[in-house]
Write a structure and sequence with these properties.
The complex is a heterodimer of chains A (108) and B (117).
Chain A (H helix, E strand, L loop, with lengths): L3 E4 L2 E4 L5 E7 L7 E6 L6 E5 L3 E2 L7 E6 L2 E6 L8 E7 L7 E2 L3 E5 L1
Parallel strand pairs in A: 2-11
Antiparallel strand pairs in A: 1-3, 3-8, 4-5, 4-9, 5-6, 7-8, 9-10, 9-11
Chain B lengths: L2 E5 L2 E3 L5 E8 L7 E7 L5 E7 L5 E3 L7 E6 L4 E6 L8 E8 L7 E2 L3 E5 L2
Parallel strand pairs in B: 2-11
Antiparallel strand pairs in B: 1-3, 3-8, 4-5, 4-9, 5-6, 7-8, 9-10, 9-11
Classes of the chains: A mainly beta (108), B mainly beta (117).
Chain lengths: 108, 117
């Protein structure tokens, strides 16, 4: 099973700042790495699939990069509505699908 | 418009059973990879099970032998039968899927399951 480790656990930044979230896989997942956003009381929402492709209706300030075992989600200029928990997920070595533990982004 | 609506959650005693349902609209469940994902209170996401468009099914080790995923093509629904429930199965259960395996494009709102005596 591929273990995904996300860092940091919490990120506290001001509006307009750049957020950089990390996800490290325990084995090579090629580019089959996805990112989801989850706000309190809501279901997760797909942001990025297969490393760097934005899902439908996702703003351009969200971008993904990486391959192999190291991946990054970047929010170029934080908006207040970006306050959420962000999860990475791999679909390279599945089943099972596996998720990272999440990074909470707080907007100051 | 694609929509997934779960139902069937509730409170059950340890060792009990529940049947969760996910009603789909805007697409046919038999053409998509359909999953169940759960989230324990205050915790992260945990994949539970998948039914491939071709009908193959897979389960997380934590639920194998206790949970069964199925679909009703005529009703366009996905089900999850939960047996031998344990307190650690307490979670919000989400139905999620899409046309490509492993990409969870569409999500329902979730249905809560509480296992407690």
């Amino acid at each position: 099973e591929t273990v995904l480790t996300q860092s940091p656990a919490t990120l506290s930044l001001s509006p307009g700042e750049r957020a950089t979230l990390s996800c490290r896989a325990s084995q090579n997942v090629d580019t089959y790495l996805l990112w989801y956003q989850q706000k309190p009381g809501q279901a997760p929402r797909l942001l990025i699939y297969d490393g760097s492709y934005r899902a439908s209706d996702i703003p351009a300030r969200f971008s993904g990069s990486g391959s192999g075992t190291d991946f990054t989600l970047t929010i170029s200029s934080l908006e207040p509505e970006d306050s959420a928990v962000y999860y990475c997920q791999q679909r390279s070595n599945w089943p099972p699908l596996t998720f990272g533990g999440g990074t909470k982004v707080e907007i100051k | 418009e694609v929509q997934l609506v779960e139902s069937g959650g509730g409170v059950v005693q340890p060792g009990g059973s529940l049947r969760l349902s996910c009603a789909a609209s805007g697409f046919t469940v038999s053409s998509y990879y359909m999953n169940w994902v759960r989230q324990a209170p205050g915790k992260g996401l945990e994949w539970v099970s998948v039914m491939f468009s071709g009908g193959n099914t897979y389960y997380a080790d934590s639920v194998k032998g206790r949970f069964t995923i199925s679909r009703h093509i005529s009703k366009n629904m996905l089900d999850l039968q939960l047996n031998s429930l344990r307190p650690e199965d307490t979670a919000v259960y989400y139905c999620a899927g899409g046309p490509t395996g492993g990409i969870l494009v569409y999500w329902g709102q979730g249905t809560p399951v509480t296992v407690s005596s």
